[in-house]
From TrEMBL:
Binds 1 zinc ion per subunit. Catalyzes the ATP-dependent conversion of 7-carboxy-7-deazaguanine (CDG) to 7-cyano-7-deazaguanine (preQ(0)). It catalyses: 7-carboxy-7-carbaguanine + NH4(+) + 2 ATP = 7-cyano-7-carbaguanine + 2 AMP + 2 diphosphate + 2 H(+). This is 7-cyano-7-deazaguanine synthase. Zn(2+) binds at C185, C193, C196, C199.
Amino acid sequence: MKTIVVCSGGLDSVSLAHRVADEGGLIGLISFDYGQRHRKELDYARTCAKRLGVFHDVIDMRAVGSKLTGSALTDDVAVPDGHYAEETMRVTVVPNRNAIMLSVAFGVAPARQADAVAIAVHGGDHFIYPDCRPDFIAAFQAMQDRALDGYASVRLLAPYVNGSKAEIVTDGALHGTPFAETWSCYKGGDLHCGRCGTCVERREAFHLAGVDDPTAYEDPEFWKAATEGFKAEEVR
């Protein structure tokens, strides 16, 4: 299927782009600028598209993002340190983000003559983000089947939805993902901070996958204390 990947520039979505490219279906990437403090991730998405030789649409949604207040990703709210499975990480939720982005992507797909839209949500996101869960993926597909009825048929692909971050690292390595050319940190500094939830999750995933982590962290050891007491099966 001719597929557009929703690509933030992060480890998950870039790995997905390389997977779809290896399978021969990738025609382009779509990214969203919603005013996120770590918008430098968009540069990594742009680099990914260039590397894979496909188009890259960046949708300017800053006006919409400015209304989605209360999140540490868009407001002047501190990004918490710690494990992704901690309750404090709920402050990183951007309300309805995936539903909004996917709605736009499903509008772009017929215009680009794409058969599918792929998104890299995974099992580790379920605890924090309701629009990353399997029932959301199924419900969104059902809604789009009706929204595009008689006009186009576009499938929503979410191959990682029941998997772990470590499994994405394993899959990314299999498909030659250049992990150093991805960005995860929510703080958006010069280096990955190594302390925010997504940095801790990233470092833990490489450890669990047994894959060397090429990421430079400001605090490369914090993840050990942050993950102590958490078992992978408890948070996936």
